[in-house]
Each structure stands twice: as C-alpha cells, then as structure tokens.
Write a structure and sequence with these properties.
binds molybdenum atom; OxRdtase_Mopterin-bd_dom; binds the ligand Nc1nc2c(c(=O)[nH]1)N[C@H]1C(S)=C(S)[C@@H](COP(=O)(O)O)O[C@H]1N2; Immunoglobulin-like; globular; mainly beta; 6 helices; five-stranded mixed beta sheet; Sulfite Oxidase, Chain A, domain 2; 406 residues; OxRdtase_Mopterin-bd_sf; Ig_E-set; 3 domains; five-stranded antiparallel beta sheet; Sulfite oxidase
Length: 406
Amino acid sequence: MKRRNFVGKVALGAMSGIIGTEIVFGSSMPLEYVPLFLQDNDPYKMFAKDKEMVVLNDKPWNIEAKAHLLDDRITPNKSMFIRNNGLIPENIDAKNWTLTIDGESVKQKKTYSLAELKSKFKIYTYQLTLECGGNGRSEFDPPAKGNQWTIGAVSCANWTGIRVRDVLEDVGIKEDAVYIGYHAQDLHLTRDPNKEPISRGVPMKKALMDETILAFQMNGKDIPLAHGYPLRLVAGGWPASVSGKWINRISIRNKEHDGEKMTGSSYRVPKNPVAPGEEVKDSEMAIIESMPVKSLITYPKSGALLQSGSTLKIRGHAWAGELEVTKVMYSIDFGATWNSCSLEKPINRLAWQHFSAGIQFPKKGYYEVWAKAIDSNGKAQPMLVPGWNPKGYLNNACHRIAVKVV
Ligand SMILES: Nc1nc2c(c(=O)[nH]1)N[C@H]1C(S)=C(S)[C@@H](COP(=O)(O)O)O[C@H]1N2
Ligand SMILES: [Mo]
C-alpha cells in the first residue's frame, strides 16, 4: 500500500480537522484510507451538532435547528444550521490561503495572504443574523422544490474579521463599480472543477457597509469547516446565500454579478404578487435583498406543560433584515388580541433582538402562543404563510408554540 506523501499529509490534516483531534499514528495510515470515524458519516459527530438538529440532505449537507435549540442569545456552532450547495472543500490549507480581488471595476487586481489580511486591516466583531432565503419553504402550497426548511435555517453568531470596504479601498475601486461577486473553494456536486456550486454577491452599497465583513472567526474561534473556514463573507440581514463561505476571490463588477445562482429564478421573488402555482417569467422576478421581519419563540419548547395559576415566561429573538424590530407582540387566543413583549435593542446593527414576556392563562386547557414582530417601517409578520412564490422564499409567518395548562 502507498504511504502518505505530502499531499496525503494535507488530507490527514483535513481529516483531523473534521474529527476534531489529531489522528495519532496518522502517518502510518495507508493513503486513501478512510478512518472509521469518517466512514460513519455521522453528521452530528462530523460537524459537532446537537443531536436534535435535523438533517434534510446529505449530498450536499443541509441541516437545520429546531426553535428551542436556538435559545442562546449568541448561536453556538452546535445549533447553527448548515446550508451547502456543493461539497465542503477538502484539504484546506489556511497557511497558504489567499484572497484575490479582481473584476472589471478593480483598479488593479491584487492578492492577499490570509496572514496579510489579518495584520493589515482593522479587526471588528459583530453579531450578525444569517437566515437562508428558503427558511420556511416547507409551508408553501403548492410546494416549492428545494430543501424543506421549517423554521431552523437562521442563526446569529459573533463574527470577527475585517471590513470588505477596507480591503476594496486598499485595492482601489473604479467609479463604474456596481456589485461584488464572491468565488469560493467548495466543489460542485459533480466534482467538475469548472463548475461553481454558488457564486453570489451584493450591490456596492451593501458591500461597503460597516458590518459587511470578511470573517476568520466565529464565536471567538476559527470558523468551523462547515461554516466557511478559513475565510467567509458575512453580510447580515440579507439572504445568507450572499455570505459566501471558503472565499478565495471577490470580483468588483461593473454590472449586476452574474455568477451561479444569481440569475434565472434563484434567490428571486415575483415583482408583483402571483397566484399559488402560477408560472412566473424570469423577467418578472427581482433579486431578494433585505430579509423580511421575523421572530422565533425559543423558550419554552412547543408542547410545554404549565401548572394552572403560574406565569409562563416566554422568550425568543426577532430580526428584520436591514431594519430594526420596534415591537414584538404575543397572542394566546389565535390572534384575536395581542399584548406587548419586552424587547431589547440589538447589540449592533443586523443582530437579532431578544424578547420576553410573562403570560397568565385564564383557565386550564390547550393554548397556542403566537409571536409577531413589527419592523421600523411598521411592517408586521403575517399570521399565515405570505405571498406564494415559485422557489418558496421569504416565509416570515408568525411562529407559534403549543402550551397545555394543567
Ligand atoms: N461557498 C459557499 N458559500 C455559501 C454556500 C455554499 O453552498 N457555498 N451556501 C450559502 C447559503 S444558501 C447559505 S443559507 C449560507 C449558510 O451558511 P451556514 O452553512 O454557515 O449556516 O451560506 C451561503 N454561503
Ligand atoms: Mo440559503
């Protein structure tokens, strides 16, 4: 059997990374041998996820949280959803990782090493809400193709990195720049190196915002491999698909970026409302930008039992894309009447906000607690599934939990 050469050693490093500890005697392991731990293919072990996370797909890996798993104020790795369009890159070599800035509207193309990026630019930390554009898709009728996310494709972690603006300005932006587009190291499902699984971007205005960063840490540690190690774009408040993982190139474009999943009907919704099931021409669709207002009751878990006469303390988070949430209300009578929750300010722009309330119930029996958030433009979450769209994006219907008073 072939022994490990240099390339083999790199792969060994990647395997250790996934396992989360060194493979002692790994150098004696035959080349192309797959350790049992990885053969198990247990995503909970591989990605260090909570046992209650729900695997929607394994090729590519797509995993979502349940509401009660998102109770932390800052989402830990174990309950952060994973959304991949392709295969997680293997053999990541952070020491030799580079980021190239190019495109029609770059003054002069430039490549930085990861170490250079970390030392040359000022470092910022923000809590940023990342929600998949398809979160809530499972509720649309007629159903939309794609991962059937329920409510768990959202997170708000602490991201540390450098401002995209600082890097682009260091390189030089031409006056005709309108968009940036990212390119990343993940592999297309076909393993065809000429195809990209996804290459999205944002208009310059969003790219140049303070909170749009190139992150190298999540919650104070190296970003977990599945979430974009060693470098990812984080553009909170927009569909999380624009927050490219494993980024190695950013193109400054003189037109709307036309990378994979930017065109056609991807991450687009009809410009005007359509009837459920109606066919919509691509020319009638618009790119999703800021995500709509939404909230999640993260405590208690749906199905809670409450002793009659006691007060139920509920809590959760609310977010509104680029906007702030100004109010969260709850209802225990299927939306007939509403009461205010107490609501905290966001720790920084684009971070989710925490709400809580103490609820008393009039008598024993079955109840549902509904939560509804309202954004700074006065827009509220709909109580039921909002406007149908062909790809099943932007379902921001009110979240609800069941409670029995006994
Ligand atoms: N390179 C790359 N970046 C990517 C993706 C991907 O498949 N490849 N998926 C995008 C999508 S659709 C979402 S919702 C978020 C999910 O981020 P997470 O897996 O860290 O939660 O990553 C985005 N960035
Ligand atoms: Mo997504």
